[in-house]
Amino acid sequence: MTAANGKRRGGSGPARPADGTGTDPHRIVVLALDEVVGLDLGTPAQVFCTARTPTGGDDLYTVTTCTKDAAPVRSTAGYRVLPDHGLAALTTAQTVVVPGIHGGPPLTDGALDPELTDALRAAHERGARIMSICTGAFVLAAAGLLDGRPATTHWAYAARFRNHFPSVRLDPEVLFVDDGDILTSAGVAAGIDLCLHIIRTDHGSEVANRSARRCVMPPWRDGGQAQYIERPVPAGDDTTTAPTRTWLLQRLDDPPTLRAMAAHANMSVRTFTRRFREETGVSPARWLLRHRTDHARLLLETTELSVDQVARQAGFGTATSLRQHLHGSIGVAPTAYRRTFRPPGSPRPDPTPDAVSPTA
Questions:
Q1: What is residue 328's predicted lDDT score, i.e. its pLDDT?
Q2: Alpha-carbon gap, residue 37 to 136, rounded angstroms
Q3: With 90 as the cut, is the pLDDT of residue 213 above it?
Q4: Among 296, 357, 283, 291, which Cα is nearest to 327's?
Q5: CB proximity list for 295: less than 8 A, separation 6 or greater
Q6: 104: left (phi over 0), alpha (psi -120 to 50) or beta
Q7: Rounded distance between C-alpha atoms, residue 32 and residue 41, angstroms
Q8: Which residues pair with 66 in a beta bridge?
Q9: How far apart, in whole angstroms, are the C-alpha atoms of residue 274 and residue 283?
Q10: pLDDT (average), residues 222-234
Q11: Which of 65, 94, 283, 331 could pair with 7 in a Cys bridge, judged by C-beta atoms 3.0 to 4.6 Å apart?
C-alpha cells in the first residue's frame, strides 16, 4: 500500500518494545553506487542516528555504508566516497537503503550489475526491509524488486523510469510509497520524510518528532502529499494560507468550516481552496484529517486518555469515527495502536510539549 494512506504490507519493521529496551539497535546498511547523490547518501545516517529511546537516550539504529568490493565510488558532488564495508554488510542488514544516482546502467539502460542484483535480492528474501531515495528506485527496479509493486521516484525521471520498467506501478506525484517490506521516495527532502516515516512506524510519533526537531525538519509530511512538480502557477498577491494553517492546528479538537477558514485568511472560499492546495499539495479537508490523525496517535502514545477522550480532543467527535479514520490511515484500531507503543506494564510517558504539541 502507498503511504498516502499509511498502510503497510508485510512485516518489515523491527520487532521491539516501544522504548527500545532490551534489544540491539536496528542495523541499517546504505548501499552506494557510482555517481551517488551526496545528499541522499548522507540522509540515512543523519536522520536515523538522531532516533533514541525516550527514557534512556539509547541509539535505536546504527548506520553503515557499503559498496561493491568496498571500493571507492564517485559522488555527484565532486568527491569520492571511501566506504568501510563491502557487500558482506548486506547479509546482516535489517534495513537496506539505496540512495539516488545520477548516472550508470540503472539510469541509462535499466540494468544492474549481477552481483549487486544478487546481494539486494538475497537481503530481501532474508527479510530485510529495502528502501530507496530518489533515483535509487531505478536500482531496485533493475534488481527486479519492484515488479508489480507501487513505487515512486523523482518526478523529473518518471518518463525514463516508465520506459525502463513498465511493470512497476509508478506514482511520480507522491513524496514516498510504503509497500511494507519495500519503500521508495521522491528526490532530495522526500528521503528525509521517508526516514522519519520509518522511525514513526517503528517507534511512534514521539521518537520521530524528536528526530525531526534535531534535523530541523517538519515532523510529518504524508507520503501522499504531492511532489513539488514544475507546473504553471497563476500569478497572485502576497497572501498566504500559512497563518490560517497555524490557526487550524490550534483548533484540531473543533475544526472550523471551510467558510470560516477562508474568512480567517480574508479570501473567498474558492480562492482559499485553490491557494491552500497550491501551498500544501492537498485540500484543506485532507490536510486537517492528516494532522488530526497524527495528533490522535500522539495522544494514544503519550497519555492515559480513553479512546473517547482522544477522539474528542483530536476532532473526530466519537470513538467510532476515530476507529474508522485510524484504521483507514494506518490499518489498526486505536487500542491496538496504543498496545504497540505502550506494552502492558510500561511506564506512562511524560507528555512533554515535544511529545504532544500538534505543531511538533
A1: 79
A2: 9
A3: no
A4: 296
A5: 252, 313, 314, 315, 358
A6: left
A7: 7
A8: 31, 85
A9: 8
A10: 44
A11: 331
312, three cell numbers: 474528542
- Answer yes or no: pTM beyond 0.70: no
Q: Provide φ and ψ at 8, rounded to 5°.
A: -130, 140
- Locate 313 and state its grid cell: 480532543
Instruction: Determine contact, residues 175/223, Cβ cutoff 8 Å.
Output: yes
How many CB atoms are located within 10 Å of the residue 214 CB?
14
Instruction: State how far the Cα of 360 lies from the Cα of 356, in Å rounded to an integer.
Output: 8
Those residues with Cβ within 8 angstroms of residue 125's Cβ, 6 or more apart along the chain or in another chain: none
- Give the three cell numbers for residue 212: 525531526
- Unique residue bearing C-alpha cell 568496498: 70
Q: Cα(291)–Cα(44) distance, rounded to whole angstroms?
A: 25
Question: Residues with Cβ < 8 Å from 165, sequence gap 6 or more?
Answer: 110, 138, 141, 142, 146, 147
- Best mean pLDDT range from 129-133, 201-205, 233-237, 335-339: 129-133
Question: Which triple of cell numbers denotes residue 114?
Answer: 549481477
Looking at residue 221, what is its pLDDT?
57
Q: What is the pLDDT of residue 209?
A: 84
Q: What percent of the chain has pLDDT over 90?
A: 55
Taking the C-alpha atoms of 276, 217, 48 and 107 in order, what is their torsion angle to the nearest 10 degrees? Answer: 60
**d(C-alpha 158, C-alpha 129), whole Å:** 24
